[in-house]
Amino acid sequence: MHILVPIAFALIIASMASALYFMMHDKGKSQRMVWSLATRVGLSISLFLIILFAHWMGWIQTSQVPLGR
């Protein structure tokens, strides 16, 4: 999990960067920006579900620090 999460974050940032690049250079003539943003959404949802599954399996634990302190 210590390796998977940073790699997923790097892929999400790379997808956002590619969407920005396509937005600036394609000027709305292609769907590459839309696909890059859809990929980012898919990666973000996948990362969230993987973190929930890892917590459910006991691979990661909460910090046990009370809220409000």
Automatic annotation (TrEMBL):
Keyword tags: Membrane, Transmembrane, Transmembrane helix
Annotated InterPro entries: DUF2909
Pfam families: DUF2909
Domain of life assignment: Bacteria
Transmembrane segments: 6-25, 37-59
Keyword Transmembrane set for record: yes
Matching NCBIfam families: twin_helix
Protein name per the record: Twin transmembrane helix small protein
